[in-house]
Amino acid sequence: MYPIMVNLTNRPVTIVGGGKVAFRKYKKLINDNPKLTVISPEIDSRFDLDKINWVESRYKKSLIRDADLILACTDDAEVNQAVYQDATANQLVNNTSNKKNSDFYNVSTVEQDGFVYSISSNGKDPFATKQKRRALEEWLRNN
Ligand SMILES: C[C@@]1(CC(=O)O)c2cc3[nH]c(cc4nc(cc5[nH]c(cc(n2)[C@H]1CCC(=O)O)[C@@](C)(CC(=O)O)[C@@H]5CCC(=O)O)C(CC(=O)O)=C4CCC(=O)O)c(CCC(=O)O)c3CC(=O)O
Ligand SMILES: NC(=O)C1=CN([C@@H]2O[C@H](COP(=O)(O)OP(=O)(O)OC[C@H]3O[C@@H](n4cnc5c(N)ncnc54)[C@H](O)[C@@H]3O)[C@@H](O)[C@H]2O)C=CC1
């Protein structure tokens, strides 16, 4: 895996699913002002519907056609897998329920004084990543 910072401003990004995990990804993505679409029959009430295009529907292949980056976050592993398989070679997919079938992983970040500190376990252990993030925050508070 190759770590980079990506400028998503005005780029089409699609989240499939509108639940708890989708909302966690949305909270960070929205800071970069992408053209964000959420495809899901139901949506967590914490989403700001003025900031996204909510397509109130179950997943269909035709709905991801225009996205550069796709996050498959439904609670149906088969749907998430279909998203990964339906995407074309120039679309990058994060399958949140199957790390083996993901083109990229989300990282944990700490931002301070204009720096972004990113932490990843290469997909192996998100809980350990969260602990490292907390330890880093503690270290930054004391140094
Ligand atoms: C592979 C990856 C794919 C991806 O999502 O990109 C992935 C996968 C999985 N996460 C799971 C669970 C949880 N993940 C979190 C939180 C985070 N997960 C994130 C990233 C990643 N998670 C990628 C690899 C990261 C790496 O390389 O280390 C972070 C960094 C970024 C972000 O989410 O934006 C953010 C931490 C932010 C922070 O706090 O610093 C919490 C919340 C919490 O603990 O508070 C829960 C509890 C459940 C819940 O929230 O419902 C499970 C289910 C495991 C199980 O049930 O056994 C899987 C599936 C699996 O492991 O196969
Ligand atoms: N990568 C990560 O950080 C984590 C990933 N997971 C995975 O994420 C999945 C989702 O978890 P939660 O968000 O907690 O579930 P949730 O139940 O809160 O949300 C599921 C969402 O998927 C939508 N959905 C269901 N079927 C759909 C379909 N056919 N088309 C479009 N949308 C559909 C629902 O309407 C709902 O909005 C889990 O099943 C697990 O596999 C779980 C925890 C953390």
From TrEMBL:
Signal peptide: none annotated. GO terms for biological process: siroheme biosynthetic process. It catalyses: precorrin-2 + NAD(+) = sirohydrochlorin + NADH + 2 H(+). It comes from the Bacteria. Pathway: Porphyrin-containing compound metabolism; siroheme biosynthesis; sirohydrochlorin from precorrin-2: step 1/1. GO terms for molecular function: ferrochelatase activity; precorrin-2 dehydrogenase activity. Keywords: NAD, Oxidoreductase, Porphyrin biosynthesis. Its EC number is 1.3.1.76. This is precorrin-2 dehydrogenase. It comes from Companilactobacillus ginsenosidimutans.
